[in-house]
Fold this sequence. Notes:
The chain is α+β, with helices and mostly antiparallel strands and about 180 residues long.
Amino acid sequence: MITLEKFEASDIQRLIDWVPDADFLLQWSGPKYMFPLDEKQLIASLEVTRTDRPPQFMFKALLDGTPIGHIELMGVNYVEKSAVLARVLIGPKQYRGQGWGKMMIRLALHFAFEDLELEDIDLGVFAFNKSAIHCYQQFGFKIYKTIPNHEDEGWTLLRMNLNGDDWVHTKKNDESGER
Ligand SMILES: CC(C)(COP(=O)(O)OP(=O)(O)OC[C@H]1O[C@@H](n2cnc3c(N)ncnc32)[C@H](O)[C@@H]1OP(=O)(O)O)[C@@H](O)C(=O)NCCC(=O)NCCS
């Protein structure tokens, strides 16, 4: 059973330990963080989450109480009711490919659409990241833009989007056991 809890300063070292190299950092989090990921960069992110109506939420994902994942909502816009799902990670490799990632994403989307009452969630994912894309598609995310040779990394970046109607449809399918 996966639960989400607020990411705290005491979670920082574990997250750093889950990022083995610069390519993985880029695949997971995009170009904003510099390798090696360190406390200073993560404290700066945490500061942003500690404001009123924060534009960013950082969560750790616990499997029966053991931290195994990380997920964020960034760029939360309370007027346009939009945000970006980001930094999606099942940390220890042995926990990947068992459905925990999808469960974690479902909880983050529930928080975004139901608790924050957002209506539009965007994300970026590199085209080679088949398991991540597959997860997102199962929630109804659709690719709306393909950016070949994206910036410095030169990888193909996909932008995907999920709106409130897609989410309602996904929830209905979940409830009727269609997925
Ligand atoms: C992406 C990530 C969070 C997914 O979590 P996970 O727990 O491994 O994923 P799940 O087990 O919940 O689901 C993976 C799905 O992808 C499918 N999949 C795996 N490899 C695949 C491939 N090469 N092609 C297509 N689908 C694939 C699985 O079959 C599963 O779908 P299913 O339930 O229909 O069988 C995790 O793999 C991860 O942390 N990756 C490294 C960090 C990263 O790249 N994050 C995404 C940044 S955008």
